[in-house]
Design a protein that fits this description.
Blueprint lengths: L2 H15 L3 H19 L7 H10 L6 H8 L3 H26 L4
Helix pairs in contact: 1-5, 2-5, 3-4
Amino acid sequence: MGILEEVQNALMYYEKTAVSEKDALYLHNIYSQLYYILSIENRPLNSEEFDSLLRALGINDTVLLVQEYQNLTDDQKKQLLMQILQMIENVMRNIHATTSINY
């Protein structure tokens, strides 16, 4: 499986097991850090940072995914990370929608 598929599976599991807004806040912290690096520092993650991102998302077997990431160009890395950012944002919205009580 590729990087995006692994991230999607991890996020789908996270979304299914989310019970409160705290779960969305956890993802928001990851989202904020990734957004800052991509937008403000204007660079892709290095291999260690990418490994940490995967582990933070609940992916423990990261060796092959980090190798796949290392083989990408910087532009491809940025594009991939932007896709992951969008995936995280969608899951945060879904968690918020399912855990909030509308009065």
